[in-house]
Amino acid sequence: MQTLQSGYRGLSLLMALNSDRLLYIATLATALAAGAWVGSL
Predict the structure, then answer these.
(1) Which residues contact 15 (CB under 8 A, 6 or more apart)?
(2) Which of 1, 8, 11, 25 is most exposed, with minimal Cβ within 10 Å?
(3) CB neighbours of 39 closer than 8 A, spacing ≥ 6?
(4) What is the tens place of the pLDDT at every residue in 6-19?
(5) What separation in angstroms does the CA of 32 have from each of 15, 22, 24, 38, 39?
């Protein structure tokens, strides 16, 4: 149980550190999809 809690805490820290990078990737993907949609009209 202690190992599971430690792993969860480590995963939470990793996600907190990379949240900006994930937001950047999601924004870029959304912009590319919107550009492709506008270009197809």
Answers:
(1) 22
(2) 1
(3) none
(4) 666 777 877 777 77
(5) 24, 15, 12, 10, 10
- How many domains, the chain? 1
Give the amino acid at 33: A
Lookup result for tokens 């805490």: 9
Alpha helices in 1-41 (DSSP H): 2-39
Tell me which residue range forms the domain holding 15: 1-41
Return d(Cα 14, Cα 20) in angstroms, integer.
11
pLDDT tens column, 16-35: 777 788 888 999 999 999 99
Residue 29 corresponds to which tokens in the numbers above?
């993907």
Q: What is the pTM of this model?
A: 0.57
